[in-house]
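Supplementary Methods. Inverse-folding protocol.

Structures were first reduced to a discrete structure-token string of length 520. This string, shown here, constituted the complete conditioning input.
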């Protein structure tokens, strides 16, 4: 070996030489298993990494792998004092995670697939290292869950909470204001609590930080719980204060100045101050000594529960083979389901409706539902003899999957990042999901969404997902259709009544949607 190569490999050799002999083969198996999970499910890991890098909501996750490494190193002495073993309950957990990945693939739920691949990595550790080793690394293993970029689903709820908190503060400070959904009108401007103003990014980062502080700085479970409550509540309250401050500054210096001030001060400085204040308050309650052990090898060895769990042993080579077999099973099953595609007509056309004609006029404010990945799409405006209008959006999918979900997040009547915002639940009695949405103006719309597949007609995205998942589990080919009817308020009749009148003209809705799917 050339001297320069020998010098480069010597540090690694010294590290391996310091490892107990019984650890070398198990670590090699774990490395092999993790490398396989990374390669086989590379699209899911790459999608996660892309969100960490591209989305400001998840930028903090870039630090989490390094934090996990630091947490693990703190426990290394206690970990190396244990003897690794194969453990069949770890295989059971891995099977559950792989099944979740397959269901996420069937439903087109990226978050389910991303959670599943992280749990697979955790389960592989359990299957190849056993319960005692896992006990010494319990918190680092748990902290891996924070690598999953989850939280966008909270945005609508946080928008509503922020708007209500802002209104309460405006009333306290005697600033006249009215609220309409997430839109706030004041004497000096019209403000929207937009998705970017929901505070979700700070809440998610604060929860991850709070969990880390709880483990490192606290021993009492009650103090840990209390700090986590503070870590969840304070960001929400602080975001309400931020929104109020932006409006207050706009009253003094104008909306443009307030917007730039919000981006610079509130975006970078304000929440750093809030985080520092939370830590300052929690400091006096810290009850873990700086030099306290993060894992107690003797306690792990003496634990009767871990002794019983350790009896569920499995050969390490058998565990590694089991992991490989499970991956092959569920990846193969998913690939077979992905190849399914229901037969569709070459084209579909806008349906005729008795008493209504198709109009060339456009809405007051553009409204274009999102149906990403649909094989066929229709959009039309209908007008009756009284001049009342109803808008239709229809989409037909040969299959459901990643990037082509009829009820996927941000799909349908209220696309993400559009000028429309959710205002309130819509009227009941349609058998579909009704919402009231609003655009600046303000312009109000009632929208009603239905999904159709097989014999199912529903407005529930959850029911649609369950039926789609069952179809793919059974390798059954059936198309999925989505219909959205909408009407603007401010016409000669309420929007709700216009939609009901249109539905009465279409006849039985399930049959009407099926007729469109057959191409007329």
């Amino acid at each position: 070996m050339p001297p320069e190569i020998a010098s480069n490999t010597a540090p690694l050799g010294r590290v391996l030489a310091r490892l107990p002999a019984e650890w070398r083969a198990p670590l090699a198996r774990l490395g092999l298993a993790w490398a396989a999970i990374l390669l086989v499910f590379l699209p899911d890991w790459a999608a996660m990494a892309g969100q960490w890098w591209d989305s400001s909501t998840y930028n903090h996750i870039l630090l989490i792998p390094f934090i996990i490494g630091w947490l693990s190193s703190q426990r290394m002495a206690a970990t190396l004092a244990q003897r690794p073993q194969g453990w069949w309950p770890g295989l059971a957990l891995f099977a559950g995670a792989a099944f979740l990945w397959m269901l996420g693939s069937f439903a087109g739920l990226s978050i389910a697939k991303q959670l599943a691949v992280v749990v697979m990595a955790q389960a592989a550790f359990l299957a190849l290292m056993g319960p005692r080793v896992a006990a010494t690394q319990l918190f680092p293993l748990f902290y891996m869950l924070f690598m999953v970029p989850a939280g966008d689903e909270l945005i609508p709820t946080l928008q509503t909470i922020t708007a209500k908190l802002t209104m309460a503060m405006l009333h306290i400070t005697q600033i006249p204001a009215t609220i309409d959904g997430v839109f706030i009108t004041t004497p000096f401007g019209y403000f929207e609590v937009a998705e970017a103003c929901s505070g979700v990014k700070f809440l998610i980062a604060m929860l991850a930080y709070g969990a880390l502080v709880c483990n490192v700085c606290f021993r009492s479970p009650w103090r840990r719980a209390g700090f986590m409550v503070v870590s969840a509540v304070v960001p929400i309250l602080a975001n309400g204060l931020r929104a109020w401050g932006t409006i207050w500054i706009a009253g003094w210096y104008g909306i443009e100045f307030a917007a730039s001030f919000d981006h610079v001060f509130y975006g970078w400085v304000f929440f750093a101050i809030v985080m520092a204040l939370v830590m300052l308050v929690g400091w006096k309650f810290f009850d873990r000594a700086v030099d306290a052990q993060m894992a107690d090898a003797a306690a792990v060895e003496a634990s009767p529960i871990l002794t019983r769990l350790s009896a569920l042993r499995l050969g390490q080579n058998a565990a590694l083979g089991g992991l490989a077999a499970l991956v092959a099973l569920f990846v193969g099953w998913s690939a077979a389901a992905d190849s399914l595609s229901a037969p569709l007509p070459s084209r579909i056309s806008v349906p005729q409706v008795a008493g209504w004609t198709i109009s060339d006029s456009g809405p007051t404010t553009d409204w274009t539902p999102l149906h990403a990945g649909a094989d066929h799409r229709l959009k039309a405006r209908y007008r009756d003899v009284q001049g009342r209008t109803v808008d239709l959006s229809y989409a037909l999918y040969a299959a459901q999957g990643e990037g082509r979900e009829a009820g996927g997040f941000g799909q349908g009547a209220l696309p993400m990042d559009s000028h429309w915002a959710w205002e309130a639940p819509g009227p009941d009695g349609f058998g579909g999901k009704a919402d009231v949405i609003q655009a600046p103006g303000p312009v109000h719309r009632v929208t009603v969404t239905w999904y159709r597949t097989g014999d199912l007609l529903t407005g529930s995205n959850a029911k649609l997902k369950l039926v789609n998942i069952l179809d793919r589990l059974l390798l059954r080919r059936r198309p999925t259709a989505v219909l959205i009817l909408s009407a603007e308020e401010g016409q000669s009749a309420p929007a709700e009544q216009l939609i009901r009148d249109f539905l009465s003209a279409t006849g039985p809705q399930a049959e009407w949607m099926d007729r469109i799917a057959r191409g007329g």
